[in-house]
Specification:
71% helix; mainly alpha
C-alpha cells in the first residue's frame, strides 16, 4: 500500500526550471527555436544559389545591394557576441574580491592574446634562423591555427550546453542517479559532436585553405575516407538519439520520474546542431550565428542572474563597481557594446587589422623576414592581427571554463539558485 501511494503521488515528469517557466522559455529555449525558423528558410532556398548569390539572402533595396548574411555577421559581432564576452569581464575583472581570489587566473589568461600570433610567427622565425628549413610550413600554421580556433569555439559552446544540462539535473534531482548520468553524458557528447565532424567531412565542406580536408582524398574500399566518416556521423547520430529515447521511455515506464526541462533543452539543442552543421552547405555557412545567438543570450541570463543576486542592492562599504553594472540592464548592455567596439569585435576591426599589418610589415617583417615581399608581409600581418583580436574570445573561453564550476563553489550555487 505504501508503495502504491508513493507511486500515485510521485510526479511522472518533474518541471523545476532554473528561474521560472517564462524566464527559461525566453532565455534558454526561444532563441534556439527562432534559429530553427532561419534554418527552415535557408534549407528551403538551398537550390537557388550559394551564400553570395542566393536571392533569398542577396537582393536590391532602395537601389542598393543588400546581403543579409553579411549584415547578420556585421551585427552579430558587436551586438550579440561581444556583449556576451563582456559578461565574463563584468563578473570577474570589475570585482576586487575576484581579483584577490583569482589574480593568477586573470593575469595568466592574458597570454591568450599572444598565443595565436606566436603560433603563426613561429615557422617564419624558424625559416629566418635556419634558411634551409622546409618551405610551406608558414601557410600550414594558419590552417592549423584556424581549425584549432574553430574547434575551441565549438568546444566552449558545447561545454556551456552541458553546463545547462547539469543545472537542470541539479534542479530536478536526477544528478545522483548513476545510470541517468551515464546515459546523459554519453548521449550528449556523441550527439553534439557528430554533426560537427559530419560538416568537416562533408563533400561540400572546404577548409580555410579553400580545399577539402586531407582525409577526404584517402580511399577506403573505393570510397573516400571523408565520405565514410560523414555517413558514419549521420548514422551514429540517429542511433544515439534512438537509444537515448528508448532509455528515457524505459525509465518512464518503470516509474522513475523524468526531468522535463532537461529533455526539452536536449530536444532543442541537439537537433539544432544537427541541422546547422550537417545537412546543407548554405545552412552550415551560417552555423556561427545559428548556434551562437542562443549561446550568447542564455549566457547573459546566467551572468545577469548571478551578478544581480550577488551585487545589486548593496549599500555602504559593500557597494562596489559591479553593483551599478548589475542594477541597470541598460548600463550592462551599453558597456557590453562598448567593450565590443573597443576590442575590435565590430566596426573598425578591418581598419585596425590593416593598420597593424602595415606597421608590422614596415617595422618588423621587412627586416626580420627578408624572404617575404611586401604583399606577403601584409598578408602575414593581417593574420597576426586577426589572431590577436581573436585573443579576446580565447581569453573568454579559458576564463569562463574556470569561473562557473558550480559543484566546487557553494556561493556560486547559491547565487545561481541551484
Amino acid at each position: 500500500m505504501a508503495i502504491a501511494t508513493h507511486a500515485a503521488v510521485m510526479p511522472r515528469v518533474r518541471w523545476s526550471w532554473l528561474w521560472s517557466p517564462r524566464d527559461d522559455l525566453t532565455w534558454n529555449l526561444l532563441p534556439f527555436w527562432i534559429m530553427f525558423g532561419a534554418i527552415a528558410v535557408l534549407f528551403g532556398a538551398r537550390n537557388l544559389g550559394g551564400l553570395d548569390t542566393n536571392p533569398v539572402v542577396n537582393f536590391r533595396l532602395a537601389n542598393k545591394d543588400v546581403s543579409l548574411a553579411a549584415l547578420a555577421f556585421f551585427l552579430y559581432g558587436p551586438l550579440v557576441d561581444a556583449p556576451h564576452l563582456w559578461g565574463t569581464i563584468a563578473r570577474t575583472y570589475t570585482d576586487r574580491e575576484e581579483w584577490v581570489s583569482r589574480k593568477r587566473l586573470f593575469l595568466v589568461s592574458l597570454a591568450w592574446f599572444v598565443v595565436g600570433p606566436a603560433f603563426l610567427l613561429a615557422p617564419y622565425a624558424v625559416r629566418a634562423i635556419f634558411p634551409g628549413a622546409p618551405v610551406g610550413l608558414e601557410n600550414g600554421a594558419w590552417l592549423v591555427w584556424s581549425n584549432l580556433f574553430m574547434f575551441y569555439a565549438v568546444f566552449h559552446t558545447n561545454k556551456q550546453h552541458w553546463g545547462f544540462v547539469s543545472l537542470y539535473k541539479r534542479k530536478n534531482g536526477d544528478a545522483a542517479n548513476p545510470a541517468e548520468n551515464r546515459a546523459d553524458r554519453l548521449f550528449f557528447y556523441v550527439a553534439i559532436w557528430l554533426p560537427y565532424v559530419a560538416m568537416l567531412t562533408a563533400p561540400w565542406y572546404h577548409d580555410f585553405d579553400g580545399r577539402p580536408l586531407a582525409g577526404t582524398r584517402l580511399l577506403v574500399f573505393g570510397t573516400t575516407l571523408g565520405t565514410l566518416v560523414h555517413t558514419a556521423c549521420h548514422v551514429g547520430f540517429w542511433i544515439a538519439c534512438i537509444a537515448y529515447g528508448a532509455f528515457q521511455f524505459d525509465q518512464w515506464r518503470k516509474g522513475v520520474p523524468r526531468n522535463g526541462p532537461k529533455l526539452v533543452y536536449l530536444a532543442t539543442v541537439i537537433p539544432l546542431y544537427y541541422l546547422a552543421f550537417s545537412i546543407d552547405p548554405l545552412v552550415a555557412a551560417l552555423w556561427i550565428i545559428l548556434t551562437g545567438v542562443g549561446h550568447c543570450v542564455q549566457y547573459h541570463r546566467v551572468v545577469w542572474g548571478y551578478g544581480h543576486a550577488k551585487y545589486a542592492g548593496k549599500m555602504g562599504a559593500e557597494r562596489r563597481l559591479p553593483t551599478p553594472i548589475f542594477e541597470s540592464p541598460w548600463l550592462y548592455a551599453a558597456l557590453g557594446i562598448t567593450f565590443g567596439l573597443v576590442t575590435m569585435q565590430g566596426p573598425g576591426s578591418g581598419l585596425f587589422k590593416h593598420a597593424a599589418a602595415s606597421v608590422l610589415q614596415a617595422g618588423v617583417f621587412r627586416h626580420a623576414f627578408g624572404f617575404l615581399d611586401a604583399s606577403g608581409g601584409m598578408a602575414l600581418g593581417l593574420k597576426v592581427a586577426a589572431a590577436f583580436v581573436g585573443g579576446v574570445r580565447l581569453h573568454h573561453f579559458y576564463v569562463d571554463s574556470k569561473i562557473w564550476r558550480v559543484s566546487k563553489s557553494a556561493a556560486l550555487a547559491k547565487n545561481l539558485n541551484v
